[in-house]
Batch of 2 targets.
Target 1
Amino acid sequence: MVLMPETTQQGFLINGSDWNETVAHQLANACHITLTPAHWEIIHFIRDYYQQFKHLPNMRIFTKAIAKTLGEDKGNSRYLHGLFPDAPLRDACKLAGLPKPPTCL
């Protein structure tokens, strides 16, 4: 059994370098999310976005960037809420091992 890395009270990794796919599954279980290929597509997208731009977008920019890169059928709130029902941007970042987006409560 792999130990879960240390997280904040809200479940974000304290040290982003602790992230790997096993940790992502553990974080997803804590959020009651079963990861599918569709989830991984968004998780990898937000990790790439963060690596490229060195910051996290707000929800509107996140949705538009997904639409531009992955297509309009995935770059919309309905699709993203289907994958991450509580808060798409916040939970995608959490499962991707990224910091909490500054625009999220």
Target 2
Amino acid sequence: MSEGTKILLVDDHAMFRAGIRALLEADGRMTVVGEASSGDEAVDRVRQLKPDVVVMDLSMPGSNGLEATRRIAALELDTKVLVLTVHAEEEYLVPVVEAGASGYLTKTSADTDLIEAIRVVARGEVYLPPKATTLLLQRYKASETDEGAGLHDLSTREQEVLALTAEGYSSREIGKKLFISPKTVDTYRSRIMDKLGLNHRSELVRFALRVGLLKEM
């Protein structure tokens, strides 16, 4: 993550936004460039400010965080969305991933995990809670799809990189596991996305789940 990562905070509670702002700015590597209290306002602010990461609540008046996430993903900017919510993973994890978010974190974990979660999504990776793989598999394992055809276009090494990426490992961690450099991992990942016609890391997660590359933990 580069210095001065630009953050947009989206939550309808001003006091909560103030607390999160203080937490992030105390880290010294992040700048809160704006705030929003609704989904509609969040989309407008993303267009204006082009932040690196949006920290998004789900339950807000008007257009909620889930709909705002879909609209932000559709803008095709480099902005990543990290959902920060009171809702347990079982309630919203699958819709959040399908909407195009790059991460999911509950507010009860914000004090210990938020900065790391932002760092992960800011560098283009996916941040998911430990139980995410199991929860997402429950959603996808019974679904029939023809996306498996795309899997046959990938080499064995590309499939390994895809699976480890979907499990949340960083390029450095994948490199250590496969005995290749992080730069080589990035090259494989770019090749995978080109072959599959994907644009975002979150799409890699969904693809890996649908074709059965992930194993239940």
